[in-house]
Amino acid sequence: MMVEVPTQLQEAGYLSNIFQRWREAGIGLSIDDFGTGYASMSYLKELNVEEIKIDRLFVKGIEEATYNYRLISNMIEFAKTNAIRICCEGVEDVHELTVLEGLAPNLIQGYLFSKPCKTEEFESAFINQGTEAYRRYAEFVRKIYQYKDKMHVVYFDAKNILRETELGLWIIRINECEQYYEMYADETMEHIMSVDRKYTPQECYAFWHNRIVENYRDYVNKNVKRMMETDKVVELEYAWMHPELGEIRVRCSGRRVEDTDGMVTLEGYHRTVSNIERAL
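Above: the chain sequence. Below: its structure as tokens.
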């Protein structure tokens, strides 16, 4: 049995003891309309939920909304990493179904399949195979997938595109007065740099900066300084000593964004260009 809990639930800390007793009795906890209201990662940890249900707000038009696609993809990755079952709610057309199936949530729910119904209607349509309602529904599902297989839906798998084209994303935070530097690298950036373990932000910056080929270090430092002093995008290309490949050519582009905690914050991309085939 699974009990759905709304995201607007108050006094989660007080209720967590009650929910724990439910779990001991074999009753699971599901967060409904996840992504709206007050739900957060700390909320999930506090309640120790078994399932989250992604709200229709994020599912609607996912085949065209790149932001929603990335958001749901990250939610699914987070849920699977933490052994939480995930359900996408509010699926109403085959386009949404096609894209979501590619992301592989545990469950997909919505009016495309069925509206809420009474117990006897549910049993007739989904359980009792000898009924006319069951046969009609089976034919309906067959037609959905027949249509889906003929349909060509194009959507952006941003994470995969970045990795396949070796385009890594980074954030650098600098406090010049204290000579303090941090770098945050996404998975592709770590892959490009051949990072062999999980570094702290300070270690990550040192790993990147110390491998800039000596002849280019002043050039890179000057352009990082330019990023800090202008609101325009600054692009540079330099030689970098890869741990496995040796000296390679890389290109990066970055700009200053909103500063926090007295730190200047830069963000941009880093790409290996040594192995790019040039246009004729």
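The chain has two domains: 2-113, 158-272.
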